[in-house]
Design a protein that fits this description.
Length: 405
Amino acid sequence: MGQLTVHAGVWTLEDMFASPWHYLPVEVAPGTAALRVELDYERAGAILDLGCMGPSGFRGWSGGARRSFVIAADAATPGYLPGEVEPGLWQVMIGLHMVPPDGVRYRVTAEPSSGTDAADPPAPDGPPPPASRPARRDLPAAQGHRWLAGDLHAHTVHSDGAMTVPELACFAISRGLDFIAITDHNTVSHHGELPAVARGYAITLIPGQEVTTARGHAGVLGDTGWIDFRASPDDWLDAAEHGGGLMSVNHPIAGPVSWLHQMRRLPPLVEVWHWSWLDLTWTTPLAWWQAWDPAAIPVGGSDWHRQGSDAPPGTPTTWVECADADPEVILRCVRDGRVAISAERDGPVLLRNDGELVAVGADGLVLAGPDGAYRRVRADVARLPGAPGFHRLLSPSGATLALTP
């Protein structure tokens, strides 16, 4: 075993005011095979986040979801990157998310090991692929294209979700989805799992991350590499674009995690429809979208974590019209604005096709444009004039059931 490093003390409000993140040094000797770190603190009124930086940079983040982690060459706690435990100065990263007036006592222990016995056991095999899946909806699309049903915001055990990547893939399939983006908080440790799970379960898994701060969350879609959440949102956008990805403002109106950041440039996407839009007759998210950037492409996300806490995947459903289901193709079509959103996968859908609006499963609903409601839909599949601007399908009570830009 290596030398045990212990840091203990009290974090105060003044520490939090000085910086949201603090760093505790750990010296790692050559020949170290694994590093185990544990955080203990008085939890009454306090929330401390946990992460790690190695000599070469980011090695993982679990936020407030875990109190310990292990990093080894061939395995690591979800949220952390396996690989060589480099000799040199490591930093245990502590996020001061919530500190009570009297401060919070903490103790951090870091123990290097020369053997792999310190590593967490490997994750169990995933569930078997489903024997059947819901039939794909046949929606009007451009020649050579089809509308894919998906969700652009979901979490796994790599941050604060309850499901493994294979479990989430199976659940998304059971919900009739063709794709799902896995956007764990402030980490990319899940990205390495996605290609094999996607092949094994025949579903498209889009790599992503939710850049998470106390002043708002941003979704970065694509295999961009880790986005440094300690930087500014303008830096997030630059990094996302440099990596070939897309950035969205996530759940801009969502209680204590609403978007408060200002930016010099605006990202191309806005998560207009999030499960926290609890009353679909309210137009608050739409008002924010139009005030923030009417040209931003609207997307939807369930923000799935676990049963009983969030809406299940596909609530809402983001539809993307594209030629195939490759993750890069889907993101390119999102960037081009070939999207629509519906409250659920099997509910009414409003699409654009051949210069017209097409309402599917919408008989008796009301079509509304940028200037308000103006037409009753009179067929299960209705083609209507396609005026510019975002349009919605409304229930007779005014609830938004589908949206297209």
